[in-house]
Amino acid sequence: MCLAIPTKVLTVDGNVAMVDVQGVQARVRLDALGEEVRIGDYLLVHAGFAIRRLDPQDAAETLALFDELFALDPQGAPPPGGVAPDPAGPRHGSRPV
């Protein structure tokens, strides 16, 4: 099962965007989306490809639901308001979301 978490577009260069999800940045392909993407847009990403553009209100509501979900299991889930830090340190732009 896969979960798509809303990601915010930081930059767009052709068919590639740099996105941010709770402080983790990644490059995603825009080829499968079929619509224009701008800085500040929110996208759902699967396997490194943007699959849907989201309304900012929908993105905020979805991110709030993830925060609530993570708060239910403080032992094994990321802290409310963000994802758990990677023990190996930040890997900006090196992995798909």
Q: How would you explain this protein's 3D organization?
A:
The chain is of the alpha+beta class and 97 residues long. The chain has a domain of 66 residues: SH3 type barrels. The protein is 18% helix and 31% strand. It is built from one helix and five strands. Strands 3-2-1-4-5 form a five-stranded antiparallel sheet. A hairpin with a 2-residue loop joins strand 2 and strand 3. It is elongated, with a radius of gyration of 13 Å. The relative contact order is 0.23.
Which architecture of the domain at 7-72 would the CATH scheme give at its second level? Roll
Number of strands: 5
Oligomer: single chain
Parts with pLDDT < 50 across at least 5 consecutive residues: none
Ends distance: 15 Å
* DSSP summary: helix tally: 1
Strand content: 25-35%
CATH topology term of the domain at 7-72: SH3 type barrels
What's the overall average pLDDT, rounded? 81
Task: Give the H and E element order.
Answer: EEEEEH
* CA-atom Rg in angstroms: 13 Å
As a percent range, the share of helical residues equals 10-25%
The helix/strand class is: alpha+beta
Largest sheet: 5 strands, antiparallel
Strands of the largest sheet, in order across it?
3-2-1-4-5
Q: For the record, what CATH class of the domain at 7-72 applies? A: Mainly Beta
Shape: elongated
